[in-house]
What does this fold into?
Amino acid sequence: NCVNIYYDTHSPVISANILMTDSTDLLEKMNLTSGEVTVTLEFSCIRNGREFEVRQEMVLHSIRDKVQLNQKTMMYTAVCVSSLFKTLNTTRVRQNLIGKANIIIKSLVQQNAVGVTVVAESETDNSINAGGNNELLGDVVARLIKMSTQNGKAAYIFYQTNYKECRLETISDLQNRQSGLSFYYRLTNT
It folds into this structure.
């Protein structure tokens, strides 16, 4: 019925919600299991006067918001995430992390996420010397970003641009390169 695809600077991966109306009980017949079902979203969009074909492969994460509409029809939301989400939340890191955070993050993600490249053009000011003590890859990436500075400020974000690429860059670099993205700052207590 409806597909919403989300980019969010608070989440490093692309996600999608698919609102489905099911009158043939597909949910039970297909035995939809999170992490095992691949969903391919294909659509076209127009941006800056040009038409683009988009093809996004995702993995079913969960089924939520089930509502019985009538005796035979159910409506629910299939929550889908990129395969990078699964990698970030299942891969364990057991190694010393020494060097610049952008190089470490690029290396860790590209080693563990098959087919995903990381663009990390902005080098951090400081060097990292930390241990990965059997932590999840996503937690390690988040910790390295928190420890990274540029011009004495913590300003890095890590996000997925499409299912084959991620970027690690500063918010100021994002704004300066005319990315076409809009940033809204939420003030505390509003």
In short: The mean pLDDT is 79.
